[in-house]
Amino acid sequence: MRAYETVLKSIETDLRSGKIKIGDQLPGERALAETHGISRASVRDAIRILDAMGMVRTSAGSGPNSGAVVISEPAIGLSATLRLHVASRQLSVADIVESRILLETWAASSADLSSDPVRSDTVLRQTADLLTTMDDPGLDREEFHDLDAQFHVLLSSLAGNAVIEAMMESLRLSISDYVSESVTSDDAWQNISQVLRTQHHSIHQAVAAGDGASAATLLREHIEWFYTESRQL
Q: Which stretches make up the HTH gntR-type domain (predicted)?
Protein backbone atom coordinates (compact mmCIF):
# COMPACT_ATOMS: atom_id res chain seq x y z
CA MET A 1 0.00 0.00 0.00
CA ARG A 2 1.33 3.42 -0.93
CA ALA A 3 1.82 5.89 1.91
CA TYR A 4 -1.03 8.21 0.91
CA GLU A 5 -3.43 5.26 0.72
CA THR A 6 -3.20 4.81 4.49
CA VAL A 7 -4.73 8.27 4.90
CA LEU A 8 -7.48 7.51 2.38
CA LYS A 9 -8.31 4.23 4.09
CA SER A 10 -8.32 5.85 7.53
CA ILE A 11 -10.67 8.62 6.41
CA GLU A 12 -12.99 6.09 4.76
CA THR A 13 -13.11 4.10 8.00
CA ASP A 14 -13.85 7.23 10.04
CA LEU A 15 -16.62 8.28 7.64
CA ARG A 16 -18.22 4.84 7.83
CA SER A 17 -18.11 4.85 11.64
CA GLY A 18 -19.40 8.40 11.93
CA LYS A 19 -16.25 9.66 13.60
CA ILE A 20 -15.91 12.12 10.70
CA LYS A 21 -18.98 13.80 9.19
CA ILE A 22 -19.73 16.12 6.29
CA GLY A 23 -18.60 19.61 7.26
CA ASP A 24 -15.88 18.45 9.64
CA GLN A 25 -12.37 19.80 9.28
CA LEU A 26 -9.66 17.19 8.84
CA PRO A 27 -6.59 17.32 11.10
CA GLY A 28 -3.68 19.32 9.71
CA GLU A 29 -0.84 17.89 7.63
CA ARG A 30 1.50 17.52 10.60
CA ALA A 31 -1.08 15.68 12.72
CA LEU A 32 -2.04 13.30 9.90
CA ALA A 33 1.61 12.62 9.10
CA GLU A 34 2.41 11.80 12.73
CA THR A 35 -0.72 9.67 13.16
CA HIS A 36 0.04 7.52 10.13
CA GLY A 37 3.82 7.61 10.31
CA ILE A 38 4.21 9.05 6.82
CA SER A 39 5.67 12.21 5.31
CA ARG A 40 3.72 15.44 4.98
CA ALA A 41 4.24 15.16 1.21
CA SER A 42 2.28 11.88 1.27
CA VAL A 43 -0.46 13.56 3.29
CA ARG A 44 -0.65 16.32 0.68
CA ASP A 45 -0.97 13.66 -2.02
CA ALA A 46 -3.91 12.13 -0.14
CA ILE A 47 -5.63 15.51 0.28
CA ARG A 48 -5.19 16.31 -3.42
CA ILE A 49 -6.79 12.97 -4.33
CA LEU A 50 -9.69 13.57 -1.94
CA ASP A 51 -10.13 17.04 -3.45
CA ALA A 52 -10.24 15.59 -6.98
CA MET A 53 -12.75 12.98 -5.80
CA GLY A 54 -15.08 15.67 -4.46
CA MET A 55 -14.58 14.54 -0.86
CA VAL A 56 -12.85 17.60 0.59
CA ARG A 57 -12.69 21.32 -0.08
CA THR A 58 -9.37 22.95 0.69
CA SER A 59 -8.66 26.57 1.51
CA ALA A 60 -5.80 28.53 3.03
CA GLY A 61 -5.91 30.52 6.23
CA SER A 62 -7.21 29.70 9.69
CA GLY A 63 -10.61 29.05 11.21
CA PRO A 64 -13.34 26.41 10.84
CA ASN A 65 -13.47 26.69 7.05
CA SER A 66 -9.73 26.57 6.41
CA GLY A 67 -7.61 23.53 5.61
CA ALA A 68 -9.42 20.44 4.32
CA VAL A 69 -13.14 20.32 5.08
CA VAL A 70 -15.13 17.16 4.35
CA ILE A 71 -17.78 17.54 1.63
CA SER A 72 -19.60 15.10 -0.63
CA GLU A 73 -19.82 15.99 -4.32
CA PRO A 74 -19.56 12.59 -6.06
CA ALA A 75 -20.19 13.97 -9.55
CA ILE A 76 -16.86 15.83 -9.44
CA GLY A 77 -14.75 12.71 -9.12
CA LEU A 78 -16.87 10.61 -11.45
CA SER A 79 -16.94 13.22 -14.21
CA ALA A 80 -13.19 13.87 -14.05
CA THR A 81 -12.50 10.17 -14.48
CA LEU A 82 -15.02 9.76 -17.29
CA ARG A 83 -13.71 12.83 -19.16
CA LEU A 84 -10.19 11.42 -19.25
CA HIS A 85 -11.35 8.01 -20.44
CA VAL A 86 -13.55 9.60 -23.11
CA ALA A 87 -10.55 11.68 -24.22
CA SER A 88 -8.42 8.53 -24.40
CA ARG A 89 -11.16 6.96 -26.57
CA GLN A 90 -11.47 4.00 -24.23
CA LEU A 91 -15.02 5.15 -23.52
CA SER A 92 -16.98 6.33 -26.53
CA VAL A 93 -19.34 9.29 -26.58
CA ALA A 94 -21.96 6.93 -28.03
CA ASP A 95 -21.75 4.72 -24.94
CA ILE A 96 -21.98 7.74 -22.64
CA VAL A 97 -25.06 8.94 -24.54
CA GLU A 98 -26.69 5.50 -24.32
CA SER A 99 -25.95 5.37 -20.59
CA ARG A 100 -27.53 8.77 -20.19
CA ILE A 101 -30.64 7.57 -22.03
CA LEU A 102 -30.92 4.54 -19.75
CA LEU A 103 -30.62 6.67 -16.61
CA GLU A 104 -32.94 9.47 -17.72
CA THR A 105 -35.69 7.23 -19.03
CA TRP A 106 -35.58 5.14 -15.85
CA ALA A 107 -35.72 8.30 -13.73
CA ALA A 108 -38.70 9.64 -15.71
CA SER A 109 -40.56 6.34 -15.41
CA SER A 110 -39.80 6.08 -11.68
CA ALA A 111 -40.58 9.67 -10.69
CA ASP A 112 -43.40 9.87 -8.13
CA LEU A 113 -44.46 13.49 -7.72
CA SER A 114 -46.78 12.63 -4.84
CA SER A 115 -44.03 11.13 -2.66
CA ASP A 116 -42.68 14.60 -1.86
CA PRO A 117 -45.10 17.20 -3.27
CA VAL A 118 -43.19 20.21 -1.96
CA ARG A 119 -39.90 19.14 -3.51
CA SER A 120 -41.63 18.06 -6.73
CA ASP A 121 -43.31 21.45 -7.05
CA THR A 122 -39.98 23.17 -6.44
CA VAL A 123 -38.21 21.12 -9.13
CA LEU A 124 -41.01 21.65 -11.64
CA ARG A 125 -40.97 25.37 -10.96
CA GLN A 126 -37.18 25.53 -11.30
CA THR A 127 -37.22 23.59 -14.57
CA ALA A 128 -40.03 25.78 -15.91
CA ASP A 129 -37.91 28.85 -15.14
CA LEU A 130 -34.98 27.26 -16.98
CA LEU A 131 -37.18 26.70 -20.03
CA THR A 132 -38.31 30.32 -19.97
CA THR A 133 -34.68 31.46 -19.97
CA MET A 134 -33.77 29.02 -22.75
CA ASP A 135 -36.65 30.30 -24.89
CA ASP A 136 -34.72 33.55 -25.39
CA PRO A 137 -33.47 33.34 -29.02
CA GLY A 138 -30.56 35.62 -28.16
CA LEU A 139 -29.25 33.35 -25.41
CA ASP A 140 -25.55 32.52 -25.66
CA ARG A 141 -24.95 28.98 -26.93
CA GLU A 142 -22.73 27.98 -24.01
CA GLU A 143 -25.28 29.25 -21.52
CA PHE A 144 -28.01 27.33 -23.34
CA HIS A 145 -26.02 24.10 -23.00
CA ASP A 146 -25.44 24.78 -19.31
CA LEU A 147 -29.13 25.46 -18.65
CA ASP A 148 -30.08 22.44 -20.75
CA ALA A 149 -27.88 20.23 -18.57
CA GLN A 150 -29.38 21.69 -15.39
CA PHE A 151 -32.85 20.97 -16.77
CA HIS A 152 -32.08 17.29 -17.35
CA VAL A 153 -30.32 16.75 -14.03
CA LEU A 154 -33.15 18.42 -12.10
CA LEU A 155 -35.80 16.30 -13.81
CA SER A 156 -33.80 13.16 -13.05
CA SER A 157 -33.71 14.15 -9.38
CA LEU A 158 -37.48 13.59 -9.20
CA ALA A 159 -36.81 9.85 -9.09
CA GLY A 160 -35.40 10.40 -5.60
CA ASN A 161 -32.26 8.36 -6.24
CA ALA A 162 -29.08 10.19 -5.20
CA VAL A 163 -26.83 7.78 -7.11
CA ILE A 164 -28.74 8.34 -10.36
CA GLU A 165 -28.59 12.10 -9.83
CA ALA A 166 -24.81 12.01 -9.24
CA MET A 167 -24.26 9.78 -12.26
CA MET A 168 -26.40 12.04 -14.42
CA GLU A 169 -24.34 15.05 -13.39
CA SER A 170 -21.08 13.20 -14.01
CA LEU A 171 -22.18 11.96 -17.45
CA ARG A 172 -23.21 15.51 -18.36
CA LEU A 173 -19.84 16.93 -17.33
CA SER A 174 -17.89 14.13 -19.00
CA ILE A 175 -19.13 15.06 -22.49
CA SER A 176 -19.68 18.80 -22.00
CA ASP A 177 -16.87 19.66 -24.43
CA TYR A 178 -18.31 17.30 -27.05
CA VAL A 179 -21.74 18.92 -26.73
CA SER A 180 -20.30 22.44 -26.93
CA GLU A 181 -18.18 21.65 -29.97
CA SER A 182 -20.72 19.48 -31.82
CA VAL A 183 -22.53 22.37 -33.52
CA THR A 184 -20.26 25.12 -34.81
CA SER A 185 -22.47 26.76 -37.45
CA ASP A 186 -24.71 29.58 -36.20
CA ASP A 187 -27.36 28.79 -38.81
CA ALA A 188 -27.40 25.11 -37.86
CA TRP A 189 -27.57 26.02 -34.18
CA GLN A 190 -30.60 28.26 -34.70
CA ASN A 191 -32.51 25.39 -36.28
CA ILE A 192 -31.37 22.80 -33.74
CA SER A 193 -32.00 25.00 -30.71
CA GLN A 194 -35.57 25.65 -31.80
CA VAL A 195 -36.26 21.92 -32.00
CA LEU A 196 -34.60 21.39 -28.61
CA ARG A 197 -36.82 24.07 -27.05
CA THR A 198 -39.96 22.40 -28.37
CA GLN A 199 -38.79 19.00 -27.14
CA HIS A 200 -37.94 20.39 -23.70
CA HIS A 201 -41.43 21.81 -23.25
CA SER A 202 -43.05 18.52 -24.29
CA ILE A 203 -40.88 16.59 -21.83
CA HIS A 204 -41.68 19.03 -19.03
CA GLN A 205 -45.41 18.81 -19.70
CA ALA A 206 -45.33 15.01 -19.56
CA VAL A 207 -43.36 15.00 -16.30
CA ALA A 208 -45.62 17.63 -14.71
CA ALA A 209 -48.67 15.56 -15.71
CA GLY A 210 -47.18 12.51 -14.00
CA ASP A 211 -46.99 10.62 -17.29
CA GLY A 212 -43.67 8.87 -16.76
CA ALA A 213 -44.02 6.56 -19.76
CA SER A 214 -44.54 9.44 -22.20
CA ALA A 215 -41.78 11.47 -20.56
CA ALA A 216 -39.36 8.55 -20.94
CA THR A 217 -40.23 8.12 -24.62
CA LEU A 218 -39.84 11.84 -25.28
CA LEU A 219 -36.49 11.92 -23.47
CA ARG A 220 -35.13 9.04 -25.52
CA GLU A 221 -36.24 10.67 -28.78
CA HIS A 222 -34.83 14.02 -27.66
CA ILE A 223 -31.37 12.72 -26.73
CA GLU A 224 -31.08 10.43 -29.76
CA TRP A 225 -32.21 13.22 -32.09
CA PHE A 226 -29.56 15.69 -30.91
CA TYR A 227 -26.80 13.07 -31.00
CA THR A 228 -27.76 12.05 -34.55
CA GLU A 229 -28.06 15.63 -35.77
CA SER A 230 -24.74 16.71 -34.27
CA ARG A 231 -22.91 13.79 -35.88
CA GLN A 232 -24.20 14.79 -39.32
CA LEU A 233 -22.79 18.33 -39.13
A: 1-73
Per-residue pLDDT of 116-172, as tens digits, reads 999 999 999 999 999 999 999 889 888 998 899 899 999 999 998 888 888 888 877
Q: What is the DSSP letter of 114?
A: T
DSSP alpha helix (H) spans, 53-136: 74-87, 93-110, 117-134
Map residue 68 onto helix, strand or coil. Answer: strand
Among 70, 95, 117, the domain boundary falls at 70
**Helices in the chain by DSSP H: which ranges?**
3-17, 29-36, 40-52, 74-87, 93-110, 117-134, 141-156, 162-174, 176-182, 186-208, 212-232
- Closest-CA residue to 189 (of 130, 233, 135): 233
- Shared domain for 79 and 162, answered yes or no, is yes
Provide the residue range defining the domain that includes 202: 75-232
